[in-house]
């Protein structure tokens, strides 16, 4: 049997023959297992050839094909089977643990209609109130998903048939209500779904008090800074669309924060959150958190989680958490509608050919193919009969337009990649350009707010919604947040992680919100920064120092003070016994500037010099004194912070002339001091535990900016611009209280005369937040 005959017998699209490598593999597998008995098994054999090679070793493909051909493995089991084989890719076929493979793949697992019906009934019972309220307007995708998750390896088509039948049995015939506009979704007090981390500890969607308070301030000022048309002023081509929209929303402002879960959210996303959540809140409206998850290759569950936690941490409260993938079925139906109305066609140009034709403004050879032909091919794409890169669904827009975003954009492409949320239910995925505007319309968004680089897409956004005859939101673009010494490109941030420049997405040097959180940034500081930056349509470069300023303002009131020495110089107190034992331990203030009588004013920790030996910072002693130097020098006095005045009486130096230790004496009668010595400057210190035991040590990490150039985008090679000194690991000598501080997650401390630090449970270290005062010492 020749190649064409095999391809035809298996039901593959004739264009499969254009892919020589795929065709050869199909022929090889067909030679081993023959032609499967059912069309579904034939489709699965095609998937073994087209999809499995990305996950399964070549030697295992015939083994897998055998299970597929006799239908011991069907579509619901395919992903599990390939996953198991991928883990065992180096195991010869003869040595595979067949029993383990069959168990992991669900071979032999089956369900009766009664079992599926019972699971469906349980799901419907859990959603009975919503079903009665929404009736046939209710999206059944989540019902289907909940049921199938309770029945591992079940055939989704069987579940859907039984689910549809049960819903019809429950609701009865369709009514006028079911054919009218859907009812408005109830607002549940602003609490989002899922979990997120609050300030110090975990909390549900609500976030934390500090973040919520700062977010509320942003909301108040946002309404003053930007003015948009009211929802009722958003004119539509068909007045009925606006009427239906207003009936659904009650005339409220509805916005959305729509990140793609292809990385951790960064400081730029904080600006988008502030605008979208802030504007909705200021106008008494609602805001969705929506994952724009249409690219399964780049998206991971941990990215969804990181986004959800960041939103909650910053104090924002979505009315609901949704996903573009929730609407895959509806978007697919819209795609078929566009084909039938002559607004879309299946194209076989490859990526390079599409780019060239759009540049030259020449039509695709397949642009005018019959709608019926495009519809059949598009359905074949969904069935997995057409390989990746062999076809796309394109919108029939205007190839002569001066706007490149109007030159027949891609609406759908084939991707044989399991979706992190939708699983392996789909092998065709909508593009961002197709999905974004449609889901905005489906969620009744009143104001679609995007950054300036999406400005060219406004025309295509409106074109698509008009072609579908559905509601069109207001679109407005604003400038991205660009900060000196920082990159916010997801591509570059991912490269920093994958190429080992940093230790992960939450590295404290990263501008991700989780990185900033480990660096000690607070929700209040970030929201204040977003508020100060404001919302404009002018691209500018905000100085990093402004972000640090916002942090200092917040930490100045909440960080407990501690004396910590980072560059130790040994000091021997020769006459420590001149002070009574009880006075050799002093009470150091946690909040020295607190008002008298407040709880903070009473907060202290013990600091002792009873061992007769302490550490001071090496910079606090010089052999040669100067007029503007306020530290120790031979014969000079200083005050030990919270303790006595001491005078330097001797010092030791090594062969290189470096001071190795200093001997001081306590000034027992301070009334004898004269001149400038009457009010000596205070220096911080840490006492030894005993004459032979130094103070406790903790890991301390100091940070500089990650990039040397202010405008990283202008650097010839951004990788070469990475600051190799962006992290310095130190040892901090600390009083015992700091060991207890380390046990408290995200506790902020001020190292006196040094800077602000935060406890980092992940690394069991103290991370530098920023210096006490703004300096130019960014490196």
TrEMBL record:
Transmembrane segments: none annotated. Its EC number is 6.1.1.18. InterPro entries: aa-tRNA-synth_I_CS (IPR001412), Gln-tRNA-synth (IPR004514), Gln-tRNA-synth_Ib_RNA-bd_2 (IPR007638), Gln-tRNA-synth_Ib_RNA-bd_N (IPR007639), Gln-tRNA-synth_Ib_RNA-bd_N_1 (IPR042558), Gln-tRNA-synth_Ib_RNA-bd_N_2 (IPR042559), Gln/Glu-tRNA_Ligase (IPR050132), Glu/Gln-tRNA-synth (IPR000924). Coiled coil: none annotated. SUPFAM superfamilies: Nucleotidylyl transferase, Ribosomal protein L25-like. Residues 190-205 have a biased composition (Basic residues). Keywords: Aminoacyl-tRNA synthetase, ATP-binding, Ligase, Nucleotide-binding, Protein biosynthesis. Residues 687-760 form the tRNA synthetases class I (E and Q) anti-codon binding domain. Residues 559-665 form the Glutamyl/glutaminyl-tRNA synthetase class Ib anti-codon binding domain. The keyword Translocase does not apply. GO terms for biological process: glutaminyl-tRNA aminoacylation. GO terms for cellular component: cytosol. It catalyses: tRNA(Gln) + L-glutamine + ATP = L-glutaminyl-tRNA(Gln) + AMP + diphosphate. This is glutamine--tRNA ligase. It comes from Thecamonas trahens ATCC 50062.
């Amino acid at each position: 049997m020749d190649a064409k005959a095999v391809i035809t017998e298996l039901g593959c699209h004739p264009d499969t023959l254009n892919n020589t490598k795929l065709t050869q593999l199909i022929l090889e597998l067909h030679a081993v297992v023959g032609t499967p008995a059912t069309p579904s098994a034939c489709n699965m054999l095609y998937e073994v050839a087209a999809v499995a090679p990305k996950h399964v070793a070549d030697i295992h493909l015939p083994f897998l094909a055998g299970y597929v051909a006799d239908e011991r493995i069907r579509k619901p089991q395919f992903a599990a089977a390939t996953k198991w084989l991928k883990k065992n890719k180096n195991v010869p076929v003869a040595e595979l643990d067949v029993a383990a493979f069959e168990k992991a793949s669900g071979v032999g697992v089956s369900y009766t209609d009664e079992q599926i019906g019972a699971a469906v009934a349980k799901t419907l019972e859990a959603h009975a109130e919503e079903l009665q309220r929404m009736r046939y307007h209710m999206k059944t995708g989540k019902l289907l998903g909940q049921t199938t998750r309770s029945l591992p390896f079940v055939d989704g088509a069987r579940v859907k048939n039984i689910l549809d039948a049960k819903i019809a049995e429950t609701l009865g015939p369709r009514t006028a209500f079911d054919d009218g506009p859907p009812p408005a979704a109830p607002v549940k007090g602003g609490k989002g779904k899922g979990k997120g981390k609050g300030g110090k500890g975990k909390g549900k969607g609500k976030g934390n008090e500090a973040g919520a308070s700062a977010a509320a301030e942003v909301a108040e000022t946002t309404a003053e800074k930007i003015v948009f048309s009211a929802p009722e002023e958003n004119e539509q081509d068909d007045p009925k669309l606006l009427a239906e929209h207003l009936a659904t929303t009650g005339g409220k402002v509805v916005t959305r924060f729509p990140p793609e879960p292809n990385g951790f959210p960064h400081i730029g996303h904080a600006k988008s959150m502030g605008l979208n959540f802030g504007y909705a809140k200021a106008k008494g409206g609602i805001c969705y958190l929506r994952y724009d998850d249409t690219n399964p290759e780049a998206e991971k569950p941990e990215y969804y989680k990181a986004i959800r936690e960041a939103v909650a941490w910053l104090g924002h409260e979505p009315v609901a958490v949704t996903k573009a993938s929730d609407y895959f079925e509806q978007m697919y139906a819209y795609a078929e509608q566009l084909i039938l109305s002559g607004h879309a066609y299946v194209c076989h140009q490859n990526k390079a050919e599409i780019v060239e034709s759009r540049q030259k403004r020449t039509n695709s050879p397949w642009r005018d193919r019959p709608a019926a032909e495009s519809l059949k091919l598009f359905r074949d794409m969904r069935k997995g009969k057409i390989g990746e890169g062999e076809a796309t669904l394109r919108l029939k827009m205007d190839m002569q337009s001066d706007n490149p975003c109007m030159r027949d954009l891609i609406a759908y492409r084939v991707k044989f990649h399991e979706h992190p949320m939708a699983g392996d239910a789909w092998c065709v995925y909508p593009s961002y350009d197709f999905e974004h505007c449609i889901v905005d319309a489906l969620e009744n968004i009143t104001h679609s707010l995007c950054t300036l680089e999406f400005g060219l897409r406004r025309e295509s956004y409106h074109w698509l919604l008009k072609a579908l005859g559905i509601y069109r939101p207001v679109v407005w673009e604003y400038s991205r947040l660009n900060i000196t010494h920082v990159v916010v490109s997801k591509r570059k941030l991912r490269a920093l992680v994958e190429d080992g420049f940093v230790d992960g997405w939450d590295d404290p040097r990263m501008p991700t919100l989780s990185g900033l959180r480990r660096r000690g940034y607070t929700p209040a500081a970030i929201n204040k920064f977003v508020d100060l930056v404001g919302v404009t349509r002018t691209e500018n470069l905000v100085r990093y120092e402004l972000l640090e300023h916002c942090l200092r303002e917040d930490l100045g009131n909440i960080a407990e003070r501690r004396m910590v020495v980072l560059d130790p110089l040994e000091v021997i107190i020769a006459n420590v016994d001149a002070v009574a034992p009880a006075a050799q331990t002093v009470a150091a203030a946690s909040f020295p500037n607190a008002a008298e009588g407040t709880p903070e004013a009473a907060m202290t920790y013990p600091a002792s010099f009873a061992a007769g030996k302490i550490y001071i910072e090496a910079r606090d002693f010089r052999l040669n004194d100067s007029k503007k130097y306020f530290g120790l020098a031979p014969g000079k006095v200083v005050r030990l912070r919270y303790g006595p005045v001491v005078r330097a009486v001797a010092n030791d130096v090594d062969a290189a002339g470096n001071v190795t230790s200093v001997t001081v004496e306590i000034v027992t009668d301070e009334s004898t001091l004269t001149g400038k010595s009457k009010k000596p400057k205070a220096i911080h210190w840490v006492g030894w535990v005993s004459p032979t035991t130094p103070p406790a040590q903790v890991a301390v990490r100091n940070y500089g900016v990650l990039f040397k150039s202010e405008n990283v985008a202008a650097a010839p090679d951004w990788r070469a611009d990475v600051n190799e000194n962006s992290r310095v690991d130190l040892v901090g000598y600390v009083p015992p209280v700091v060991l207890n501080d380390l046990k408290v997650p995200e506790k902020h401390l001020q190292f006196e005369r040094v800077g602000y630090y935060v406890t980092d449970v992940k690394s069991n270290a103290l991370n530098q937040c920023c210096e006490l005062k703004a300096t130019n010492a960014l490196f």
